[in-house]
Design brief:
A four-stranded mixed β-sheet has the order 3-1-2-4. The chain has two helices and four strands, in the order E-E-H-E-H-E. The protein is 23% helix and 35% strand. With 69 residues, the chain is an alpha+beta fold.
């Protein structure tokens, strides 16, 4: 499964929408995604499962690069 993770790079700062970044992760579950990103100390806002038309739309983006866990 492919998940899109919305995050802030610094977990100690107040989240600001304009500073939100995203990355794509291939994993078996949301729990696995959180566990693998724990060491990066991101402030994770949302982890969204991508499937169907939404996944196709994201794959068409130039920024679509999947990290495997």
């Amino acid at each position: 499964m492919i998940f899109k993770v919305y995050y802030q790079e610094n977990a100690l700062q107040v989240p600001v929408r304009e500073n939100t970044l995203s990355l794509y992760v291939e994993a078996e579950s949301e729990r696995e995604v959180r566990a693998s990103l724990k060491e990066r100390k991101y402030n994770i806002e949302l982890i969204q499962l991508l499937e169907g038309n939404h996944l196709e739309y994201e794959q068409a983006s130039q920024n679509f690069k999947v990290e495997k866990i």
